[in-house]
Amino acid sequence: MDVTQLKTQRKSLRMSFTICSKSIEDELMKEAPNLNQLSIWKAQIEDKFTRLEKCQTEITNLILKDTDAKRAYEEDFLSAEKYRDRFSELCAQIQRLSMKETEIKEFSEKIKFKLPKIELKKFTGDAKEYLSFWSQFSKIHEDTSIPNEDKMQYLLQAVVPKTKAARVESFPATAENYPKAIAQLKERFGHDDLLVQIYVRDLLSMDMKNAASGRTKTDLPALYDELEAKIRALESLRRTQEKYGDFLSPLVESCLPEEILVAWERSRNIKDASEVEDRSLEKLMNFLKQEVKGEEMVELARTGFSPPANQKKKEAANKLDNYPTAATLRNKSEVDANNVQFDVA
Predict the structure, then answer these.
(1) 214 and 177, same structural domain?
(2) What are the pLDDT digits (tens) for 281-335?
(3) pLDDT tens digits for range 206-245
(4) How much is the pTM?
(5) Are 282 and 245 in contact (CB under 8 A)?
(6) Positions of the region Disordered (predicted)?
């Protein structure tokens, strides 16, 4: 291949090298460069530079064969040196950024807070506690590195003695009995239908309590948190809002005090005529969330500039201390009487 052909090939390689280097420079200019992307581009530009250097070496060898090649060689060498310098500079910047990222990561790992040890949740046999209990104990149950005999010991430690859950103690603590004990525990307390019945009955009891109180105003944030907890529990049992919203929405509405229920109906009526009537549970819960936020903002505005409760108690105590006692009033009366006698004399 002659010099002309090699220079044509070099031109294409230099163009490809320049495009890749421009992408690297743009990424390095960002406030938070993507180190993964820079690593990919670094591998690409190393490949392009290797091929460019190979082509450059062939061109240099052909130029040096010419008897009068000094001037041509110097010009070609300076042109090639610019690409070598640019390649070295980009690689150094990427390497420096990578080292900095590693140092930051190592430093952040060193200053992590020492978290408190998680205590294994005790299960009393109350079905309402089963979901939270199993979400923790399932990590032990699914850990293949723990032998079954050890899992059985963990299970025995996780149940409260002399409760319904403690009936797993009737199984001898062996590896063979561990799956049987877990099966009994799930069958008795973790049956989905049973848990759904419990949470739905809780909603019904809230309805009855609300009806008995005459639908008077209640603590809305506490009510919302309780409703949210029960709905999330039902969702974890695969009773999602999409499938069971038509059933759950009336239950939740019946739990609301009258003024909130009126506000909910009013909010549904204020809409475009083109909108389809929607009583979805999701929209109802979003409405309650906004009502809770509004109530908390009103409470903040009402109490934001008043002194804290402790300060009020302190001020009240100071006022009491400043009131004269009976002994003080008696002493003052005696002093006044003596002064009067002295004036008369």
Answers:
(1) no
(2) 778 888 888 888 888 887 777 776 666 555 555 565 565 555 555 555 555 555 5
(3) 777 776 666 666 778 888 888 888 888 777 777 766 666 7
(4) 0.45
(5) yes
(6) 305-325
* Domain residue limits at 181: 127-190
Q: Would you give the end-to-end CA distance of the chain in angstroms?
A: 140
Backbone angles phi and psi of 28, in degrees to 5: -65, -25
Whether 335 is covered by a domain: the verdict is no
Write the CATH number for 34: 1.20.58
**Residue 228 domain flag:** yes
In terms of Cβ atoms closer than 10 Å to its own Cβ (0-12, 13-18, 19+), residue 295 is middle
Domain boundary among 51, 81, 109: 109
Residues 86 and 70 in one domain: yes
Q: How many independent structural domains does the chain possess?
A: 3
Name the pLDDT band for 339 (thresholds 50, 70, 90).
low
Verify that 185 and 131 share a domain, yes or no.
Answer: yes
What is the identity of the amino acid at 300? L
- Tell me the two tokens of residue 237: 């049992």
Indicate if 89 and 135 belong to the same structural domain: no
Distances in whole angstroms, Cα of residue 265 to Cα of each of 113, 248, 258, 288: 48, 17, 11, 12
**Are 86 and 159 part of one and the same domain?**
no
Q: Is residue 345 part of a domain?
A: no
Task: Give the Cβ contact number of residue 234 at 10 Å.
Answer: 19
Distance between CA atoms of residues 185 and 182, nearest Å: 5
User: 327 in a domain, yes or no?
Assistant: no
pLDDT in tens, 135-171: 888 888 988 889 999 999 988 888 888 888 888 888 8
